[in-house]
């Protein structure tokens, strides 16, 4: 499979292209473009959340926790203007960081097996939809921006999974390695119940997610421009 630095580089490049394209077509401003870059880069590392013995991955998720908690705090500070905004923001930042690093990332790394169900397309779709719902209901962002962040995260994750599949091919011998098919997958015959639960969760999150009408219209407008 591709190493951490390869995933990080590809994630940054891919996310930068998406962020720049949206800014160029005036779908959003510079701040949103920067946030897209950060969210997409996080997505490119997300499939390795099930990897608990890699120092680069551990460092990556430490940085991701710092970045995400900072972004959440910035979004909060830009939206609310309370008398104790600074104190509230610091508390929010610390709480978000601890929840992400010691809660989400640490729990997943301990309870999951690398290249298991987490390393699959439907699992990444769940994370993306959670971002959509969290941004809309939690951070009170618009439906357009919420779907934008979720989509960028999902694309970043797909870049990771595709890279792992590419690296599972022995180019020189033109043959597949044992790891082939363990990264970019939609279903596993050995785990039918588990994957059924994943897809049911996806349907539930789609039902809870805000309308995607504005986001789809924006993409169609860009497509017609091309």
TrEMBL record:
The chain crosses the membrane at residues 31-49, 61-78, 90-108, 120-139, 145-172, 193-210. Coiled coil: none annotated. It comes from the Bacteria. It holds the Pfam family YdjM. Keywords: Membrane, Transmembrane, Transmembrane helix. InterPro entries: YdjM-like. This is Metal-dependent hydrolase. It comes from Moraxella catarrhalis (Branhamella catarrhalis).
């Amino acid at each position: 499979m591709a190493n951490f630095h390869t995933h990080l580089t590809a994630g940054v490049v891919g996310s930068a292209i998406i962020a720049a394209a949206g800014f160029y077509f005036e779908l959003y401003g510079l701040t949103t473009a920067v946030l897209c870059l950060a969210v997409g880069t996080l997505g490119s590392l997300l499939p390795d959340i099930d990897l608990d013995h890699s120092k680069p991955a551990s460092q990556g998720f430490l940085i991701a926790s710092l970045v995400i908690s900072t972004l959440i705090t910035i979004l909060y500070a830009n939206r609310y203007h309370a008398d104790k905004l600074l104190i509230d923001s610091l508390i929010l930042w610390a709480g978000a960081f601890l929840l992400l690093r010691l809660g989400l990332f640490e729990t997943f790394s301990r309870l999951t097996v690398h290249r298991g169900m987490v390393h699959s397309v439907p699992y990444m779709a769940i994370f993306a939809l959670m971002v959509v719902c969290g941004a809309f209901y939690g951070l009170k962002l618009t439906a357009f921006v919420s779907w934008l962040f979720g989509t960028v995260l999902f694309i970043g994750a797909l870049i990771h999974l595709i890279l792992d599949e590419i690296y599972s091919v022995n180019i020189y011998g033109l043959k597949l390695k044992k790891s082939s098919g363990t990264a970019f997958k939609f279903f596993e015959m050995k785990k039918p119940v588990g994957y059924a639960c994943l897809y049911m969760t996806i349907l539930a999150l789609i039902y809870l997610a805000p309308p995607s009408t504005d986001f789809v219209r924006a993409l169609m407008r860009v497509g017609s421009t091309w």
